[in-house]
Amino acid sequence: MIGVEGWAGLPAVVAIRAGVILLTLVMARRAAAARWIAFGGSAAASVLSTLIALGVLVGAPPAHGVLFVHGASGYSLGFTIDPLSAWFLLVLGVLAIPVAIFSIGYLNQGSLSHRSAYVGVAFNVLVGAVELVFATDDGIGFLCAWEVMTLATAALVATEHEIREHRRAAYLYLAMSHLATGCAMAAFLTLAVASGSFAFTDMLSGDVLSSPGRDAVFVLFVIGFGVKAGIIPLHIWLPEAHPVAPSNISAMMSGVLLKAGIYGLVRFGAFGLGVPRLSWGVVIVILGGVSAVLGVLYALMQHDLKRLLAYHSIENIGIILLGLGAGMTALSMGQPQLAALGVAASLFHVLNHAVFKGLLFLSAGGVVASTGTRQIEELGGLIRRMPWTAFFFLVGAIAISGLPPLNGFASEWLTFQSLLYGFSDATETLPRLLLPVSAALLALTSALAAACFVKAFGIGFLALPRSRAAAEARESPAVMLTPQLFLAGTCLGLGLFPGAVLGVIGGVTAMLPGLLVDPVMTGGALAIAPGRGGFDRVVPLTLTLVLLGALAVAGALAWRRYMAVRPVPTWGCGGELSARTEYTGTAFSKPLMMIFQAVYRPTRQVEALADVSPYFPREVRYHAEIEPTFERYIYGPLTLGVWRMADRLKVLQAGSLHAYLAYVMVLVLGLVIFVWWSS
Amino acid sequence: MTEGTLATIGLAILQAAGMLALAPLLRGLIKKMKATLQTRQGPPLLQVYFDLAKLLRKESVRSETASWLYVAGPRMYFATAVAATTLVPVWMAAAPLEAAGGVLALVGILALGRFFLATAALDTGSPFGGMGASREMTIAALAEPALMLGLFTVALSAGSLNLGALVRGLLDRGATFHPSDILALAGLFIVVVAETGRVPVDNPATHLELTMIHEAMVLEYAGPDLALVEWASAVKELLYLTLLADLFAPIGIATAATPVLLLQAVPIWAAKIFLLAVAVTLVESTNAKLRLFRVPDLMAVSLGLGFLALAIRFL
Lengths: 679, 315
Fold this sequence. Notes:
The complex is a heterodimer. Chain A is mainly alpha-helical. Chain A has helices spanning 6-26, 31-57, 83-106, 110-113, 116-135, 139-157, 164-195, 200-203, 211-229, 238-244, 247-270, 278-300, 305-332, 336-371, 382-385, 387-400, 407-425, 429-461, 468-471, 478-496, 498-511, 540-557, 585-595, 597-600, 629-649, 657-678; strands at 63-70, 75-81, 565-568, 603-610, 617-625. Helices cover 69% and strands 5% of the residues of chain A. In chain A, strand 4 and strand 5 form a beta hairpin. In chain A, helix 16 (387-400) runs antiparallel to helix 18 (429-461). The N and C termini of chain A lie far apart (54 Å). By secondary structure, chain B is an all-alpha fold. Chain B has one domain (3-314). In chain B, helix 5 packs parallel to helix 11 (295-314) and helix 7 (179-195) runs antiparallel to helix 9 (223-248).
């Protein structure tokens, strides 16, 4: 297709990455060289894999091939890049290329610089593993790649491992991930036993299991991939791990790694087990609604810029699930066109979230690198010190809030359509109730997201600097700004030409069993429509042109006196205006905290220390906290239970060699008896 | 450019200009009626026009701490309000740009304007701006699901989310009445009161810091910047009332672009807006402003009404 033959392409990518890793290790002592080799090489490999993906997406036949053959067992690790794999590879590439370039500049600072080789190697391993996750076509290869991906991520989360919080986040991530991998493995083994093969073509043919087993495997897949995707209540690792990782890695984790979970849910959960049951779709819609609303509500209470973004990832995963769930519901009711609409909305949002969340994390990374803090209460005034970074963050903020004309609007619009259009054609009572309520929840979510980003941008970037570090911040270098420019441009491009994107997604949904793409949906590059004429239609480019025209009118109306601007100090209520009299992020989100008390269950302590009279305190200490509900009520007892069980099992592992030998003996005997019995 | 495109652009400009020209009159009318109810004389009906003209001629006073975003805020707010007028059928049973977007685009565009204005309010460093922005975004977030649910109920019963097609669908259905309409209308009316910053949610007539929401947000603006904000708010108010008229009493709207039908449609539209303005005035005159933390209850009522309407309609 674009000069890259699929069968040779992926092995070439793997070879490039292996070479890059070796060279980086050789040059490990020289940080600058290691950075350029590792990330330059990674970008090159990603360009290649993205070209392969694009080739498949525009109509080339799926790329098949074999990566290596294990002689003794006869096992061969093969890959197949079909449109679904290609779509996720494209999402990976769109983010991995700018992030790699950003990393060259980002790692050139303070404590991170001497870890350039470490991060570079782990980054290449990670991106390579994700490429394999999306490309492999059998269960064993998938699980191996999945595990490498998990381990590389954990290593990257713990980049600054001398900080206790970072180690803890990495361990939490490992523990949760392995719980999930266990579930996925159990599901794979069940399917492999039933179908007699590990190849996806056999395992996922759709009719290998009958009803109760099918449900159980679906649940295993939801847990197995839900942890990686950060679905509430499986999300607890996410707000710990995303903020402590270096910002370039946070961008990858939020933009792409969560999507690996979504990939698993789509390929195995939704389309690998035959026609989904109605209850599956309902479960996914409910999980999506809960994740979206709770994700954004928790995000509102965060004052750590990267933690705030991490909670927004949960929200966006919720939105992706709403589309997917609506699609599955429609599929179970036998409406192939509606199902295609829901799945297309969710796949579109997968790409959009990768782009704007990547952009936001990169901008936040620039801020953290320049000021040394993640707390928005210590930032402020950055729009003058770091104008480009501020502008790019603003673009990302508008996109993630689902506002026209950027890309977030297009996919949230489609998700709304999949819920409402689905409603009008739904034949069962449950979805008829659930879908419009979900649409109202989605409206709440996007309005709250807008409030949250008014806070994040307004407090973090505008008005007066709230700390010395913010007052002395310096703009990021061009090597960090260019990738942000690319991502911001992509936000605009995807928003203005949603029809073109939907045309590509049409090819992906066409290959999924049971989906039928309505040609109306994918007609034209500018417009998108849910289907049947007249229900709704949107042309973001027209809206943008109208907005620009109206903006010109507004400018002209106020133009006459534009030159006569008198700059004056802001009125400080009689006192002097300083950063301490500004509105804070805590104050900004306080009304919402009080309104959603039932969710947050806030506690606060005010302590006044006074010398003479209690009316003239020397010092006031204020401590406020919202209750970590899931951590305290679900994971707390769970952890305690595991500890207790481990305590009991200690009896078995008493340190006596004789006892251990006896265990081995008993086991061997048992196995022999079992084999004798079953034959 | 084909003739059809040119005609569409012409219609869009005409409708936007008409809404821009008439919106201050609605504000003046409500002020006048309120004054009458309070047995005051009140300002002249055209006072809002005089104020706008005066503000547009004054110099701009801007905070030293503010950045370009502070300048962009009112302009974006104005632009989004004007752009939104082209998506709503006003005098004809077709919105000029209905092919470009429906209900969701309308709500999205208005949200974009609010996003910019609220962000700009934080730019001066004044605590009032922050307070206003925080409250505005809070109430907007609570109003949005109620607004959507109400709109969805009507839209789904007419079979389209596109406002032009929706109004035509309602007209085709004839004057059939459904009990859910009352619930949806009540729910949406509450939302409109909240979105336009009227009592009992907000008080447009006061600059007392403890009571204000929208006014606190735009407190720092002066001259032409303030004129744009005020004008855009007036346009939004007229737009919301027109939307209510479209959704619940589309009768009388011109079904074709003939002079006779249009000449009939404009007075009928004016009468509907007048009745709604009377309702807004009565609500504003007979209620006290709610404490900020009672507003969520009101929004919950609106959300509940919307949900009930939906349930009655479709279950």
